Amino acid sequence: MSQRQITFEILRYDPETETEPRFQAYCVPCEEEWVVLDALNYIKDTLDGTLNYRWSCHMAVCGSCGMMINGEPMLSCKAFIRDLPAGTIKVEPLYHFPIERDLVVVLDDFMDKLESVKPYVIPKKQRPIEDGPYKQTPKQLHQYQQYSMCINCLLCYAACPQYGLTPEFIGPAALALTHRYNLDSRDKGRRQRQEVVATHEGVWECSFVGACSEVCPKDVDPAGAIQQMKIASTADWYLEHLMPWRRS
Amino acid sequence: MAKSNKPIVWGLFAAGGTVCAFVIPVMILITGVLLPLGLFGPPEASYESMTRIVSNPVVKIVLFGILFLALWHAAHRLRITVHDFGIRNDQLVARAVYGFAGLFSLIALVTLLSF
Predict the structure, then answer these.
(1) CB contact under 8 A, A207 and B83
(2) DSSP for A8-39?
(3) Which residues does residue A9 pair with via DSSP β-bridges, in sequence order?
(4) CA A20, CA A44: separation in Å to the nearest integer?
(5) Between β-strands A3-12 and A89-92, what pairing exists: parallel, antiparallel or unpaired?
(6) Residue ranges matching CATH 1.10.1060.10 in chain A
(7) Do A199 and B8 touch (CB under 8 A)?
(8) Which of A110, A159, B5, B48 suits a disulfide with A211, CB 3.0-4.6 Å?
(9) Distance from CA of B12 to the nearest CA of A (A)
């Protein structure tokens, strides 16, 4: 195992006591198989216990360690140091979110948006427990499975230039999850979700840059989900305006 | 939040994208490559046969549809590109690019009807 000394420039910021963020450099002896999160843990454990960042699983499942690494949104547990260009590694909190402390961002905006699209199965009629489980064929599962892989890591929001410009935009992950429930055979809540999806701040704020799908660590393809919802919303619009009697 | 009327412009944009991807390359192949190469008879005689084809009302309708949708698609694409470049005067840009698409659609219509 070879060890390399690598300098990490890490954004530090405490909004309660500091007026603006600053970068602090740490020199870390990195092992060949380390990811950026290992280096952060080394800093926290041996160099500077005051550094703040979120992490939990260290295996790209929990979605809590997303940050900007050399300006790219990545899960720090999935960013192998050997894959990054040689030289200083710059670590910043996810773009487009307010900073809570150092690499920790405030997630309230996303949480509110996620709640607004009702990300849960809304059945046509609630069934009593005695009736047993809702069954689904493998084909029905396949319809939405890809979109259910989202771990809410918010790399897509940090990558999305539209969200950066228009913070009201519902954004990639929340819309991908909307699509996930709309496609679920057990769900009948699409019309309720359309009240948010079909607004300007819903799918129509998206200009299909596609950065969300590029950075997604779980291959969810939020951009694809949004385009599919644009097509469905367009069909809705024409039906509502050209055949108004169709709607109840 | 009210539902957006964006589907009007986006629906035409999406249809135009399909046309641009599938039909325009074929038209370029026919009119720009195969025809000059003489695959449809001697190129000198092709103007005659082309005008005969375009004078058919069904062909006129189809061609106008293709040209209008392709122009609309280009206009909307430009509007988004301008936005992505950071120019924020969307209403003005929208009027300009859609106006351009409308004007050239009108020119295409007048030209088609003259055959």
Answers:
(1) yes
(2) EEEEE--TTT-SS-EEEEEEEEEETT-BHHHH
(3) A25, A90
(4) 22
(5) parallel
(6) 108-246
(7) no
(8) A159
(9) 10
Chain B residues whose CB is inside 8 A of the A198 CB are 3-4
| pLDDT tens digits for range B53-102 | 889 999 999 999 999 999 999 999 999 999 888 888 989 999 999 999 99
Dist CA B32 CA B37 (whole Å): 9
Q: At what angle do helices B7-22 and A222-242 cross, to 10 degrees?
A: 120
Residue A244, both tokens? 């108004």
Say which of B1, B10, B11 has its CB closest to residue A196. B1
Assess: ipTM above 0.85: no
Are A231 and B2 in contact (CB < 8 Å)? no
- Among 3.40.30.10, 3.10.20.30, 3.40.50.620, 3.90.1150.10, what is the CATH number of A3-105? 3.10.20.30
Residues in chain B with CB shorter than 8 Å from the CB of A195 are 1, 3
- Distance between CA A98 and CA A109 in Å, rounded? 10
User: DSSP class of residue A47?
Assistant: I
Residues of B with CB under 8 A from a CB of A: 1-8, 10-11, 14, 80, 83-84
